[in-house]
Amino acid sequence: MLRVLIAPDSFKGSLSAFAAAHHMAIGIRKAMPNCDVDLLPIADGGEGTVDCMVEAIGGKKVTTRVHNPLGEWIEAQYGVLTDGTVVIEAAAANGLELIEKSKRDPLIANTIGVGELIQDALDANHTSFIIGLGGSGTNDGGIGMLHALGIRLLDAKGDILSPIPLACRSLDSFDISHIHPKLHTANIRIATDVDNSLCGINGATVVFGPQKGVQPEWIEPLDQALAQFGNVLEKQFGVSILNRRGSGAAGGMGAAFVGILGATLDRGIDLILNIAKFDQRAALADLILTGEGKTDSQTLQGKAVYGVVRRAAQLSIPVLCVSGSYESSANPLYDLGLDGLLSIIPGPVPLEQALFYADHFLEQTSYAAFRIFMAGRSRERKK
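Predicted structure:
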């Protein structure tokens, strides 16, 4: 009996990672009803990370009230795994999608809600955290989060600064005397899929600011604010952060986590695959099937599919990628060990129709991909 490990990311706008894995399995079982399928929906620290971890490891979701980036109350969830580890998607509280495009204002948007999520978990006596930083809609260096956790930003006179991005230009020191006490023993692991530094040409503001609503004339002052934040952090805590890879994740929140809260910063997909015991499950498979909404050059920057392909190659397991669409810029995946890249779209289809029928298209393409795989195995056996 053949065994297939199904490990897709979400198809953004249409299917969650869990739904995608389910429909892939339907397609495979149409081709081979008795095929043994192992569903392992995955994420890379962004959307779907909580669902994937709770599904893979077991656990529950907790709902609490927090502030969104503009200070409005919303309900947000985090996961608690069976071993007590808390899994948080920062975007649940500071995500770009939480703010209507016409209302986005990166000059006041902050990460207070992320700190409130962490505080809620700390108050419930949880001290082990996995925090995904994908999908951020803020550019505040994480100062809102720090504020919610009891850390105050002070100017040269010792006055408390407001937790908004440009306030960092007047930052002189951090007051950590009222930090949440459980943070002293907390273990925080950060999952991110970007390597950008805190500031400068490859920093958070220059690279990601425009998609969050940062206007050209705001780039320099916001970048200077993050630079001052990093300088003070380095001076007070002795942590080299300004040019550290990943410190610019989530609008500079990576710097706050590493430099002040002592977190470790990991490539999101590797952290999540390790926790989900991907290698052990993949070693039992004859084929790995993965996929995502769009496979392109961004996939190569450390997205979920990239991680699966790289791990599959190390284990010498065939891997096929079935995605909503793909571009030739993703072809280097073949050099990493990918065996096939297929789009689920059968032809020219309006976007609305492609999204609406994504489940059907995914089943059809998974069926075809698996038949191709079986045909190849059959010919190998006849040689």
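Summary: The longest helix spans residues 358-382.
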